[in-house]
Specification:
Distance between the termini: 50 Å
Radius of gyration: 30 Å
Number of helices: 18
Largest sheet: 5 strands, parallel
Strand order of the largest sheet: 2-7-10-1-11
CATH topology of the largest domain: Rossmann fold
CATH architecture of the largest domain: 3-Layer(aba) Sandwich
Helix content: 40-55%
Length: about 475
Amino acid sequence: MSELTSNTKLTSTDDLTPRQIVAELDKYIIGQDDAKKSVAIALRNRWRRLNAPAEMREEIMPNNIIMIGPTGVGKTEIARRLARLAQAPFLKVEATKFTEVGYVGRDVESIIRDLTEIAVNMIREEHTEAVQEKARDHANERILDVLVPQPRLKTVEPLSAGFAVTDEPNAQNAADNLPESTRDKFRVKLQKGDLEDREIEIEVSGDSTSMLQVFGPMGLEEMGMNIQDLFGNMGGKKRKKRRLKIVDARELLVKEEAAKLIDMDKITREAISRVEQSGIVFIDEIDKVAGKSAAARSGPDVSREGVQRDLLPIVEGSGVTTKYGLVKSDHVLFIASGAFHVSKPSDLIPELQGRFPIRVELESLTESDFYNILTQPKNALLKQYAALLESEGIHLEFTDGAVKDIARSAAQVNADVENIGARRLHTILTTLLEQILFDVPDVVEATHIVVDSAMVESKLSAIIEDRDLSQFIL
């Protein structure tokens, strides 16, 4: 388990104030100002805690958040963008995937194990990136060893009366005694990329345990292990020879050399520290494990309440055994969400309610919100479709009137059929552009396509007006 030190930092969010965090979220998420403000405060409070007096750090607990609102309004996206902004380990889970202890299903402690695995992979990638240049140099030297083997040391041959040393190369190692200048010439060619298409035979590590993982017993998950960890090193690592072009061989060799240069013990320590100090868990559909109100039910709902009671120690803070060591969840930020159409937040057990002190209600999206979602974010859907067709050499343009019509259609279908929030825009745009996406590049010869109000009207009006049909298509 890692210890919190005064040097522990939250990476890129050190200098971001809550207002700046909200401004960053505004680049991707339209509206929902209350939810953005709550998560921004929660993220900044982590930095404040790490800079608080040492005797108070462990006492300051995160204010977990529960988001209440219909699907497709931005609950998951807010949490995901927050984690990316903080460069923090992030895990999204669905509450309905878990079951209470003693029943078949996922154990709630696997949340922390999965989060730790994500953190280890994240830190490994960071460390691997830091040693890429050195690993590439080592890989090139291994390629040179194949192209121009280094001179061997003097050979020692036994004689009847003792040992004799000979400097004469035999037929097998004649190539090993090439002058160093030849190796230097090949090194220059390799660096210039003149030898990329030449085939060489290299020896790389083989994956001999890929099939063992399929048959791993379920009980090992509770121990933080898997079958590959138990049997992965049996018989040692197998090596196999492969004949590849140098450009492909280098990629494999760089990975091997990078793995040798990084310190897995250090990675594990950093990963556990990052989970404990900056991990974020998003628990979706928490309303599905909320039982009905006490007055409406005849007896205890064992399955739902059991999941809540198992979640409770994880959320309030406990130690979880993983294959990397003990991980404490005391300062992990938990963000729960749910539509709460049938149940209410008050239907959660009181102890769990108390662990989510911040409640934020997200608003349903309006026609104006849909228009802003289509035009303002960095990853707006219209920009995504334009980028797709740009790859075919076609410039796709939407008139302002067409965008307004698309937004109005999405709002109308959500109101008439079922409110699925911004996800409705995906289905509407797919229907609108389906023929264009199908015809390009076989039929469409134009390099500039304009989507206007007339096209939107012709493609969507009949479906939107026919409510029964729109239920199946939009």
